[in-house]
Amino acid sequence: MSLDRRLFLRGVGGAVLGLPILESLGGKPAFAQSEAAMPYAIFFRQANGVAQATNSEPERFFPRTAGGLTTASMADRAIGELVDYRHRLLVLQNVNYEFFNYGDGHANGALQALTAQGPVVGGAGGGSEANGESIDHRIGRALNPDGRDSLFMYAGRDGGWLGGPCISYKAANDRHTAWHDPWQAYQSFVSGDTTLSPEAQQRLRDRQESVNDLVRAQMQRMLSRPVLSSSDRQRLQLHFDSVRELEVSLTCRFEQDREQALEGLAPGFNSSDGEETLETARLHMDVAALAVACGYTRSVAIQVGSGNDGATRYRNLETGATMENYHYLSHRRLSHGGDGEIIPNADVLHHYVDVHFARTFRHLLDRLEAYVMPDGKTLLEHGLAVWYNDNSNGPPHGVRNVP
Question: Which range, of 18-27, 73-82, 111-120, 139-148, averages the lowest pLDDT?
Fold first, then answer.
């Protein structure tokens, strides 16, 4: 056909948006070695444990019974937010971390979870570093095109305990830099070093037109080809609609944040407000799903909150009011340590945070489910999406039965 596929893929020289495989044309994107969808893994991290059963607190997280998940076994538990995915969901219990001498329960969990390694220097607490590569980076190094790094993204206030982004490591004592702004993460794979004209570069910078607009004429030519099957048309349209939807949400979000910045407020992606933080995490998930669907990466890690998520204040699901910072709730006290006034019903408030995270993880599953692959299965069925925690429960920040 007359379509310049390379030009189309590069978005007039700049955008590197991989197309879905179109069976009618008998072609394959450059990133695909076969028509089978490539496997991938996405890791979504929560801090501070969950509201699970202890000697004094009831179970509010795990299903009621082991075995096949049912609506009844998941009801009224945080995990129940994922009930529609119960047939694909594996909820693990009795997962225990090693008790390495990090000098701090948060460091032990956050730095160990994806590396399975102890500290570079023992007992360093908030100054700790992991002594090995994390699994997300290992997957990317082995499977990504050209050995590209995995995609690592962070939502929440910059800085804080363990220095903010802390779960992903390229090697011992070598943290992987995280994308904080979802728009920049998005731009990292849809545009870059380009031979675009100055005018086109300005259009991209100003975000007045989407990457879709830059290649829309060629897209229309492709969609009008009579050789395309109905399923190919749907697959192609889904791809472009997804890019457009993502761009619109990012543009609207950061236009609003720019206005807030003019008023002296922090941008939404560098916020201690739980609503803004989790909205940023959802935008990161949108970017992650698109990046995997386009073949840009096979591995993603998304971290919410610093090492102890000690600044973020999530919303009470009953009243809508902003609660105490999450780390206080996890300690059940108005303290980052063992002192301080007891917070009434803190275990219930911690459960509300778990529900917020469950709903956010549900957003990721929904996004992965939206992409239909050439074999008729969804992208969700071809990979692994993991919601995990640094610790097992609140007050002791334990290492046994970690969700």
Answer: 18-27
Q: Are 161 and 308 in contact (CB under 8 A)?
A: yes
Is 395:331 a contact under the CB 8 Å cutoff?
yes
Residue 85, amino acid: Y
Helix, strand, coil shares of the chain, percent, nearest 5, are 45, 10, 45
| Residue 205 pLDDT greater than 70, yes or no | no
DSSP characters over 335-349? SSSS-SPBPTTHHHH
Output the six-digit token pair for 233: 């048309």
**Dihedral pair phi/psi, residue 23, rounded to 5°:** -65, -35
CB 80 within 8 A of CB 62: no
Exposure string for 180-218, b = 16+ CB within 10 A, e = fewer = bbbbebbbebbbeebebeeebeebbeeeeebbbebbeeb
Q: How far apart are CA 262 and CA 289, in angstroms?
A: 32
395 band by pLDDT with thresholds 50, 70 and 90 = confident
**Buried b / exposed e across 330-348, counting CB within 10 Å, b at 16+?**
bbbbeeeeeeeeebeebbb
Q: What is the SS3 assignment for 385? A: strand
In this prediction, residue 211 has a pLDDT band, given cuts at 50, 70 and 90, of low
- Of 106-110, 230-234, 346-350, 385-389, the poorest mean pLDDT is in 230-234
Q: Which two tokens stand for residue 41?
A: 């893994």
Round to whole Å and give the CA distance between 239 and 370. 10
What is the DSSP annotation of 369-382? HHPBPTTS-BGGGG
C-alpha separations of 184 from 33, 291, 360 in Å? 29, 13, 21
What does the alpha-carbon distance between residue 313 and residue 300 come to, in Å, rounded to a whole number?
25
